[in-house]
Each structure stands twice: as structure tokens, then as C-alpha cells.
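[retry 2/3] non-reducing end alpha-L-arabinofuranosidase: previous attempt timed out, resubmitting with same input.
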Amino acid sequence: MKTYFYLFAFFLVTFFSIKTAKAQTSAKTLTINLTDIKADIAPDMWGLFFEDINFAADGGLYAEMIKNSSFEFPSPFMGWSRVAHDGAEGYHFVQGYEEEGKNRRYLRLQRLNDNGTFGMQNDGFRSMAVKEGENYRLTFLARVAKGNSLSIKAQLRGQGNEVAAEGTVKELTDEWQEYEVMMPSKLTADNINFRILLEGEGELDVDMVSLFPEDTWMGRKRGMRKDLVQLLADMKPGFLRFPGGCIVEGFDLDNRYQWKNTIGKMEERDLLMNRWNVEFAHRNAPDYFQSFGIGFFEYFQLSEDLGAEPLPILSCGLACQYNSGEMVPLAALDEYVQDAIDLIEFANGPLDSFWGNKRAEMGHPEPFGLKYIGVGNENWGPQYIERADIFEKAIKAAYPDIIIVSTSGPSPDGKEFDYLWEELTKRNAELIDEHYYRSPEWFRTNARRYDNYDRNGPKVFAGEYAAHSTTEKDPLKKNNWEAALSEAAFMTGLERNADIVRLASYAPLLAHVNAWQWAPDMIWFDNLQAYATPNYYVQKLFSTNAGNHVLDITYNGQSLAGEEGIYASATIDDHTQELIFKIVNTNPSGQLISISLDGRYNGKEKGKWYEIASDDLTIANSFDEPKAIHPNEKEFTVIHKKINLELKGNSLNVGRIKIAK
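[retry 2/3] non-reducing end alpha-L-arabinofuranosidase: success.
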């Protein structure tokens, strides 16, 4: 009898356990109406924000390997050191050109004997790196000041003094001349340095010492680092905002970014101390300067390469209000306004215009097709509004079709934010730039941020956003999955409100692992390699799966923005005739989802499903594990107009399926 009792009890426990489990895992039914288009999505909605912070330009995207190549740093030998071995005797010092110009100095090497090894060494941007079999192009200007039969030996050397690559230049003359030598590398290595060695007794003047890999993006001389640009190109960005945020303002007006100093030949570009050189006491970078090897021409060219709309931001005559808040008097603002007018001419002007001709001289006779221009960055108060009014009037008088981006200050809320929105709305502003660096929880909570914005008011440019994980306690905040997942949840809200949110970009974009000032960042690199973060993969999934119309995706008749831990958006792509849905599960446990397709769907197509998921919210990618977390591709099938998915806990899921025309 006992046996039957235990069997019966076991049956009851098992029955109710199964029933309870089924109840806990019963599918949530979401509905997508394929015929009810809610809004159009701008074709350039998801883009990139670039700022020269974290050595993102010099030492990063700009492939120049020599730091302080023309000896123009305030400390002329910063980055350089003297080489004198095995009895070599000599001196090195800088000389000034007789003619005034932006390139003011050159190096003189004075060798007193012909013994041993004598010259100068450059350690690059936190050292250099080479790859076996690749060529490295050295160029420099030189003239013989004294002596006969002088020659130059150039070397790339490792820490153990092994020679990775070398080349020789002979027949130097007593007139300034540019020399070029190609040096193939025998090995792959980081922690490399460069030496330029004088052979023969005498004196040699040297300037504009430059070293680039031959294999740059698009094969351009003095070009960009190929692996970094490829990561950007893979995102298929709709726009590229440049040259940054705070560097536009400068810590004072002299330190602001002036685009006219960044174009023309390299010797015509004016060196500037990067404001991030001294901004953070815990991450001082006294060797951080802007050579402007990437200037406004290169930014426009890169935008064109990426198929992205260029979006330049200019100073409005207000320095960073966190630093000096220095202001140009309104009566003296004409120079700043004219810079904006001239920039539009540089980008779009005909060949017979002054600045259009400058663009053509640099190798691009066709206009760049500029549509946007930003006035100011993270400025606030009436000081900004009165300057923005002057810019708006002048730009619209000259170029009425240019869309002006205005700023709402550095924070996504508060007194200054509210003041600027009120004033800019009165003025019928076209695009207002909002910035948010907040906790992951803030991003999840604010997925409905734009649900109640005025549909007839200004449009939003979500110009800088990143979740700063609360699990990271030190200044090096890692790009972990908690942050990326929360950004994905927030981005479904941006997409659902694409009639309000016109453009959006994560920030900052790039960071050198040995030279960063700010973290987290979307792509990390050293001198040899780079890796993408989980945040990168989230941004890429949205930008490469955008669609052009917003559809409703609902649960119990309501949009999903955190209800029961689920966030969702849906779009349709008329060009490919595909439905695209994005579902974020922020629950630690898996969820069964059934998507019911109302409307025009018919057939039994298989769909693609991209999934990023991890039980560990602290997981992050690294050089050792560059794909510790990244998208996996799966498939699903539509049966009777339903898509059944089993979502993992803590996951972003992006699906695509063909629909009927």
C-alpha cells in the first residue's frame, strides 16, 4: 500500500511541477501589424561620432607612426632622443626657418666623426608596430648644411635591437628636397622604434620625417589605418559627425578647433595642443597634440568612403563652459560665422569659388554634398542662444537648405536642458543634439523617453550616448555586456520614435589601450591590432538592420519598453521587402516569444536571426578574447503567420524575414 501511495504522491508532484514550469515558460504573444506604418526612418539615422580623444586621430586612425614629425611641439624633441654609440660624436638642435610659416622649425644633425652610430630615435605613439611582409614608406625633407658624401640610414628596431626593416638614402644635396624610401618588414612585432642615422662627417638639416604603412585605407599615401576604418565601414553608418565634441570648443578660444588650419599641405597645417592633454589629472597626456594629418578634407573624404553624410560641428564663439567659458563678444562674432559660411563653400562650392577651388586643389573637384552643420557643442545658457541666432540667420541667408544642428547642453535633463529646449523650440530649430552618459539602469528606464515628445516640434539628434556600467569601479570602465544590453534596450525606443529621433550615435568611438583618457569606448586598439566591443556589435546590428518604416510591435495592445523585462521595435525595409524586428530580453532567464504577423505576410520563408547573449553581465571583449561576446547567426521559420522564438536571458535578438509585396 505504501508503494502505491508514494507512486501517487510522486505523480502529483511531477504533474504540478510540469504544469508550473509550463506556466512560467508560456510564450508571450507579440503582434506586428505589417500594414500600419507609424513613421519613416531617416536613411542616415544610425551613424558615427568621431572625436580626437584617447589618441583616436594621431596615434590611431591617422596611420602616421612618427610622433612630432616636424619638431613643432612646444618641446621640440618630445618623442625623439639622441642616438650615439660606439665612439660616435655629435650634436642635435633645432633651427628656425627664415621665412614665417606654420612649419617653423627643422632639425640639424651635426656629426663630428665617422665612428659608430649617430642620429635620432623616435618612439612613436606609445611605441610602434610592424607586420611581416608589409612595406613601410619613409619620407622626409633634407639638405646638406656641411660636408660631402653624407647619407641616411633608416631603421625600425625592436626592443632586443633586432632590425625589423631598414633603408638607405644617398646622394643628398644642399637644397631642400623630399626623399622617399620603402622599407619591408622582416617580422611582426609591437614595441618597435624608428631611427634616422647620419652616416659621414658633416651637418644635415632634416624636417617632416614621416613613416606610414604602405597598406593604408584605400591605398592613400599619408592615409588612414586600414583595420580601424574597416570596422567603421562594416557598420554602414548613415553619417559621420566630426571633428568631435569638447575639442570643438577648446578649453579657451585659442584652443578651439579651426577648420581652416587643418587643410592644405601638411606644412600648412597648424599644430594645436589637444585639450585632452591636460583635462584629466589621473590621465594626463603631455605628448597629446593635433598635427591635423586628419583635417576637414580627410573627414569629408572619409564620410564619402563610408557612404555617410558628413556632419561637421563648429565653434559658436563659446569656449568650454566647464573650463574657461571664454566668449567672443557678439560684435566680434563675424569671423566665426564666416568660418561656417566658408566651410559650406569648401564642401559644396563650385570650382570657380575660392573655397571650392581649395577643395579641388586637394584632389576633390566634385562637391562633397554637405547637408548638415552643427553650431556649438554642449554649450548652454542665453550666451549660446544669442550666438546661435546670429549663426542661424547668416547660414540660412546664404544656404537655406543646410540643416542646422543646435545643442541642448551636456546633460539630458535639468534646468539648462529645459531652457535650451524651450528657446530652440520657439525658434523652430531643426535638430537638437542631446547627450547622455548615464548608468545602464537609466538607459533601460528611459526607453520611452521620446514617446511623448511633441511630434510637431524640433527633431532630435542623439549625438553622444553610452551606458557607464555601475559594476566598473575604476576609471577604466570596461565595455561590458550590462552596458551594451542596456543601450540596445534604449535604442529600441529611439527606433520606435524615428519620427522624432532623426540621427543617433554612440560616443566616444576609438581608444588606444595605452593612451586613453575616457572610457568606455566603442573600439579599442593598440599599434598592432584592434577589437570591437559588445557595444560595437549592438550598434552594428541596429545600423545594418535599420529598415525605412516603423511598425507597431505590441504585447497586449501596448508597445514594449521594459514591460516584464522585454523591449522591442519593428521596421520594414521596402528595398529588400523584409520585416525586421529587434527584441531585447533583460531578464536573466530565457523567454518564449511568439510573434503574430497581421496583414500582408504569406508563405513559409525561413528568416535570419542574430543573437547576442550572455548570463554574465560583466563579460567584455579584449585582445585575448576579442569575441568573448558577439552576434551568432541562427534561423527561424514562420508557421501559420507566427514566429516562435526561445530568447536567451540577457539577450539582443534581431530577426529578418521576407514578406509579400
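[retry 2/3] non-reducing end alpha-L-arabinofuranosidase: The chain has three domains: 21-42+550-658, 48-64+219-547, 80-213.
[retry 2/3] clearing retry counter.
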